[in-house]
Design a protein that fits this description.
The protein is an alpha/beta fold. It has 21 helices and eight strands. The chain has three domains: about 80 residues, Up-down Bundle (Four Helix Bundle (Hemerythrin (Met), subunit A)); about 190 residues, Rossmann fold; about 150 residues, Signal recognition particle, SRP54 subunit, M-domain (434 Repressor (Amino-terminal Domain)), CATH 1.10.260.30. It has an eight-stranded mixed β-sheet, with helices on both faces. Helix 4 crosses helix 11 and helix 19 crosses helix 20. It is flat and about 70 Å long. The two termini are about 35 Å apart.
Amino acid sequence: MFDNLSDKLELAFKDLSGQGRITELNIANSVKEIRRALVGADVNYKIAKEFTDKIKDKALGERNVLKSVSPGQLMVKIVQDELIELMGGQSVGINTTGTPGIILISGLQGSGKTTFTAKLAKYLKEKKSKTPLMVACDVYRPAAVDQLEVLGEQIKVPVYKNIESKDPVQIAEEAIKHAKGKYDVVIVDTAGRLAVDEAMMTEIGNIRDAIKPTETLFVVDSMTGQDAVNTAKAFNDQLNFDGVVLTKLDGDTRGGAALTIKYTVGKPIKFVSTGEKLDTIDVFHPDRMAQRILGMGDIVSFVEKAQEQFDEKEAERLEKRIRKNKYDFNDFKSQLKQIKRMGNIKDLMGMIPGMGKMVKNMDIDESAFGKVEAIIDSMTPHERENPQVLNTSRKNRIAKGSGRGIIEVNQFLKQFDYMRKMMHQMTKQGGQPGAGMATAKRGSRRKKRR
């Protein structure tokens, strides 16, 4: 997402690079290109014009103040500040207070409500130490209840259902009574429609009035662009929801919904979701999203994702093994699993400043992890612990067992040997692979205690 917008904004800033100072003429040219970029990203023209008018006024007001800053740098800073403001200014948490806290999920059919319900339950269980209960109130869509149950089994979160009832209000009320004293958060998944209609709005309104949720979230498919914003407005007029969830941000979307939904409905984006995996949910941070749009990466999110999967004791163990030059294939496979749990590799690389443009058009084959694991799994325990014993006969057996060619096996072993030597050399020179992240995690814990 936002790749096209990022490219066009970069071109707009290039018009100012190399120029000694900001003038009304070069500001006007850049602002015109920024407006075109926003409209191309499916931002409403009226909003794009108001946005760029603010940028123009700020740039003209600061052109004689910040003489030490280049025109291009100044414009990037102004656009970044305005993007952050447009998307809500700061992240907003979810309200789970209550006995139990009740979260009502609303939205159109196909927006990803049921999958998000499970993602949110997993997030609250694992990251907020909550005991959630999911409630199946979609009594219309075939297999909707079954889908929620399957997802519940995957994340080990129970699902309340009543297959004998076709009254979602009754089911929701029964679930709240059932949850008291057993669960501290109840997440109610409701039915959607193909379009906003009176029956749908009446039903979701009746559920809200009956259970009085502490939080009402509107889930919207970001692929629908400005239609997502219009649908959000219709729901907000009826429900007065508390926040928005943008799903399918990994799809071919131009980003207009993410940029303007807060401006249009006056409600914050609270979560963003990518893909079908149940750990692909993130709290929405306007400042981080603005940085990514402007090609600055998002190193804070990258470190947070790494820390979630990082085991400090494991890092210390690995460091000792590397120092003694005993790093083996078991250690390597363990690290591979941690990396895979962090998420899509291309997205992760895009969070690193300067890497976004480099990987944009790269075809990163994540199945390569599976190929490497197959090679390692075809080794005997003795071979995994002692890489040096791998002779031609053993390599041929491993190639057959893993279904890979001998050339591919030799290439991997050569790369592993080189990496192993480099890591050992780093520790001899005073570097500590993994120690930096360990320090970061300890620092993070100290901040939480304070």
